[in-house]
UniProtKB/TrEMBL annotation:
The name this protein goes by in its record: Tetrahydrofolate dehydrogenase/cyclohydrolase
Associated pathway: One-carbon metabolism; tetrahydrofolate interconversion
Region of the whole protein represented: 75 to 369 of 369
Keyword Transmembrane helix included in the entry's annotation: no
Species lineage: Eukaryota, Viridiplantae, Streptophyta, Embryophyta, Tracheophyta
UniProt keyword NADP, yes or no: yes
């Protein structure tokens, strides 16, 4: 039976990092400016520490300066905001990222709002999202994970215009902005969430499916229209006695089933994950170029 084309996010992300490297050097040579990304991490969640380490390594790999602040779990909101303010005023920092989730005693909204919109490379500021949603407006930055999903489609020569798309999930950081981006690309978009009674049936009508749910293997083969394109954002640890870590990562899509039905699919890991970091570097470069009027 037919098998989907595997969309290789790892190699596409590598290609994007190579392009960024070239641009970083060109900028440095021309005006002596090196883009900089500051990351603030609070507490010692293992997964957050891994994400932050990967971001630092990615910066190094393309020549972007990285700055890191680690604060203890019991820090106050003011402690975090103090560092954000310093980075806001530091001209060598072009992007500021607060690693989420924050400890439960902190008000996430208040902290994220402290990041200057010109340095909000995560694109989570309400003004960014508002501009993304409005016709004729341009956001300062597009959130990295959904931007990575669209970039995967573009770089795999999958056209979006006029297609029926279904986004499963409506979170502020993935589902909702992914739906807005698909709409901006002229797809006709439906959003499926936990209160959608006929999720399967709706999903089966889609030419393009983006799954961002957080439920392992939820999207089965019979949810997918033959020939559809499936982007799996999910990163879910499931127990695996055979793995040395005791778990492995699976997506929101039942890969073994869907790979037989779809025309193209992203794997987990190695699909959207590496793209998220590549888009963070892209946004940092965009920010530095904008700050220095460099084209
Ligand atoms: P959230 O938990 O914030 O949002 C999940 C969304 O899925 C919600 O809108 C929820 O609906 C919906 N949902 C939950 N259960 C169902 C269901 N049974 N049927 C239909 N919809 C459902 O998650 P995130 O958006 O932050 O993350 C989603 C996944 O993507 C996770 O696995 C996460 O680890 C991964 N992720 C991967 C990234 C990457 O770089 N590849 C980056 C960020 C996240 P409702 O709104 O009604 O509650």
């Amino acid at each position: 039976s037919a098998t989907a084309k595997i969309i290789d996010g790892k190699s596409i992300a590598k290609q994007i990092r190579d392009e960024i490297s070239v641009e970083v050097s060109r900028m440095k040579d021309a005006i002596g400016v090196v883009p900089g990304l500051a990351v603030i991490i609070v507490g010692d969640r293992k997964d957050s520490a891994t994400y932050v380490r990967n971001k630092r390594k990615a910066c190094e790999s393309v020549g972007i300066n990285s700055f890191e602040v680690r604060l203890p779990e019991d820090s106050t909101e003011q402690d975090v905001v103090k560092f954000i303010s310093e980075f806001n005023d530091d001209s060598s920092v072009h992007g500021i990222l607060v690693q989420l989730p924050l400890p439960s005693h902190m008000n996430e909204e208040k902290i994220l709002d402290a990041v200057r919109i010109e340095k909000d490379v995560d694109g989570f500021h309400p003004l960014n999202i508002g501009c993304l949603a409005m016709r004729g407006r341009e956001p300062m930055f597009v959130p990295c994970t959904p931007k990575g999903c669209i970039e995967l489609l573009h770089r795999s020569d999958i056209s979006i215009k006029g297609k029926k798309a279904v986004v499963i999930g409506r979170s502020n950081i993935v589902g909702m902005p992914a739906a807005l981006l698909l709409q901006n690309e002229n797809a006709t978009v439906s959003i499926v969430h936990s209160r959608t009674p006929n999720a399967e049936e709706l999903t089966r009508q889609a030419d393009i499916v983006i799954a961002a749910v957080g439920v392992p293997n939820m999207v089965k083969g019979n949810w997918i229209k033959p020939g559809a394109v499936v982007i799996d954002v999910g990163i879910n640890p499931v127990e695996d006695a055979k793995s040395s870590r005791g778990y492995r990562l699976v997506g929101d899509v039942c890969y073994e089933e869907v790979v037989k039905v779809a025309s193209a699919i992203t794997p987990v890991p190695g699909g959207v994950g590496p793209m998220t970091i590549a888009m963070l570097l892209t946004n940092t470069l965009i920010s530095a170029k904008r700050a220095h009027n460099f084209e």
